[in-house]
Amino acid sequence: MGEGGAERSSATGEGFAPQTPNHRPVAKRIRGFARKMRHEPTDAELAMWRLLRDRRLARFKFRRQVPFQNFILDFVCFEKRLIIEIDGSQHASSTPDEAREAVLIAEGFRIARYWNNDVLQERSAVLEDIFVKLAER
User: Fold this and answer.
1) How many domains does the structure of the chain reveal?
2) Which one of 55, 73, 115, 120 has the minimum C-beta count within 10 Å?
3) 68 inside domain
């Protein structure tokens, strides 16, 4: 979203968010936190962004640290309704993550989770898995 909450007029920038039937405004604190997270990525998030940005993966448009409802999505391809989450050990068997995932699935998203170490050490395998998931729909 641009200044004052207005959407950008083109789908080219990171600020573009396609309207969905269940679109709800995002709280200012969530947008601010997402902006902060874009400026302070983890090593794994930075490595993944270098692989996904500028339509580098099969020309699919990904956005990073996207506010959606009360959540921040690490990476999302709205065209394919695919969310990519890069997780550290704090997310292992996390009940809040399960509840979050249920809400996102109800909104029509699929979620792919990768461990930080896999992104940093097994990039080819992670990219191949993402490509397969993109081709599924």
Assistant:
1) 1
2) 55
3) yes
Task: Note whether residue 3 is domain-resident.
Answer: no
Q: 50 is in which domain, residue-wise? A: 25-135
State if pTM tops 0.90.
no
Produce one character per residue of 37-69: b if its CB has 16 or more CB atoms within 10 Å, e if not.
Answer: bbeebbebbebbbebbeeeebeebbbbbbbbbb
Residue-wise pLDDT tens digits, 51-110: 999 999 999 999 999 999 889 999 999 999 999 999 875 545 667 788 899 999 999 999
Smallest CA-to-CA distance from 133 within 57, 71, 49, 66 is with 57
Domain for residue 36, yes or no? yes
CA dist., res. 57 & res. 43, Å (int): 19
Residues in contact with 134: Cβ distance below 8 Å, sequence separation at least 6, in sequence order: 57, 58, 60, 77, 80, 82
CATH for 36: 3.40.960.10
Write the pLDDT tens digit of every residue in 11-61: 444 444 444 445 556 688 888 888 888 888 999 999 999 999 999 999 999
